[in-house]
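Final paragraph of the annual report: two paired records, presented back to back.
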Amino acid sequence: MSERPDTAEETTLSTPQAVPRPVGVPPVLDEAHIGDIRGALGTIKLHDTGARHGVRARLAALLAIMGPGLIVMVGDNDAGGVSTYSQAGQNYGTTLLWTLVLLIPVLIVNQEMVIRLGAVTGVGHARLINERFGRFWGWFSVGDLFILNFLTIVTEFIGVSLALEYFGVSRYIAVPGAALTLIAITSTGSFRSWERFMYVFVVANFLVIPLLLFAHPQLGQIAHHTFVPGIQGGASSTAVLLIIAIVGTTVAPWQLFFQQSNIIDKRITPRWINYERADTVIGAFVVVLGAGALIAVTAFAFGGTHYAGHFNDAGTVATGIGRRLGSTAGAFFAIVLLNASLIGAAAVTLSTSYAFGDVFGARHSLNRGLRDAKMFYASFALMVVFAAAIVLIPGAPLGLITTSVQALAGVLLPSATVFLLLLCNDREVLGPWANPPWLNAIASVIVAVLVELSLILMASTMFPQINVTRLFEYLSLGTVAGLIVAGVYTLRQRVSRTEMSSEESVPERSTWTMPPLALLERPVWSPGRKAGMLLLRGYLVVAMVLLVVKTVQLAH
């Protein structure tokens, strides 16, 4: 087992006997993670084990549990998302809508695995990586999450500045005001209060619907481009990179850390996994519908005008919409951008604070007050304050930061998705909740595609003159060949297991949780897995070095 920090708080929170738990409740590291589920829209008692019969009872349970999945998805439509979707519509019309449809199963599959990890283990994503794969990967996961999330939070405050500048508000008022608002919302000491604030942002996300009506959309054109792939002007390096940006802004590493910890913080146990799955599926469709509406708004607002094909930033989009569709429409877009920036900053920052608490053994629950979880709230406040301060520095390289966020996300996405898949196949961790073969097949394809897109994004950032279209073709052939080889190898190496009968599986799965981490044996890796992890480590080291060198060059 890996070494643990020798702090009194760590010992208290990590000792299995320190947190008495009822049957069916995972071995959480913070006793605040055991108790009633108190969601924004309802409550479920800790010892409530009664079956839900009828639509009304099931709906009440869903409303109580709903939140983590919906918030993580809508939070992903952040300032960067609004900017990317607006660019897609302004430069390529509605022809890239089909990419969003393909992302629905990716979002659902990735986040469904996170749901099981959170509800069954009671341990955050970073801590699981540290315990199951060693200190290097544990500290790497937290370190890279911090760097990427911090830079992402900076971009969220850039979005706040651009949104409120539309209304004539100075950035020196807008940014500090947004920072104080985020800290106040998160520091209430009540998970329910925090979630209710998040629901305000979720509801505001639907302002894209009346905004779309202002643009007088052609429904036939939208339907056609949603289901018929195509690219306005044909495939090019620029178009391929934008498609990768759409994938990158929709599937981000912080989502895995956030939802797993938020599920634990909300006290969702294996009994309620199906309801949380429904929450996540609903969230996936909400985020894709919102993204599609933004693409359509800019497509129909700017199509056939001098604005088409000349995207600059989200602020100029708001100004252009105001001129083309009227000041009310421009104001709606600015509010959508502001809302996206705030919920994005709230979720991204919280995912980092959760990870810190998880790894360092500090109390990390929204159900605790400021005095009871000093490190948790201090880490949140410090990240928000420093990120806001960077945006206020005259001449700060905000464009370089935005570019670095996209490239760094591309570097880190492969490791995040690979660890997710490995953890969900660890039977010491998930037991009967481990991935079935069919899900592994789907997840492996998704991971392979995400790794390929990550490589393309990294290569194009490091070497801007590279032919992205040709690189995509070569890597796609390699990905297909690799998947075939991996599939054949897996089928040949698979050891037959006795399948549980349906009568046995239901009660066992509903009460089975991971044993305390200290009692788990470290997994034994095969030579192939060791080689794969060494290759991944080498890729990350080389990519990070190249990224730092490129960033320094651009800065000068």
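The closing record of the year follows.
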Amino acid sequence: MSLPVSQATNDDTINVGTRNPRLVMLTLNAAVADTNTLTLSGQVSKIVSFVAQRADATANVAITHTSDLVLTFDMEATADGTTDDLTAMELWLVLA
């Protein structure tokens, strides 16, 4: 039995468009509250991926990718009953 030989291809243009992906790091110093959104515009066509790191312990953060250029924050109060917002957060984005 022989396996067919395949050519390596770059299909990234299907997923991220014609631009090279860019890594962007944002530091959000103001309070980020539940249901706040981050909307990107300009020379970006899609948020490919994202990672958040909270800088304080007042809330747990989850982020929903609600459209190609919009992220929505979902904040939950921590177990000790503090408020459900953050005073600072780092957000890493891979953009196309």
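The chain has a mean pLDDT of 77. This concludes the annual technical report; the extension proposal builds directly on these records.
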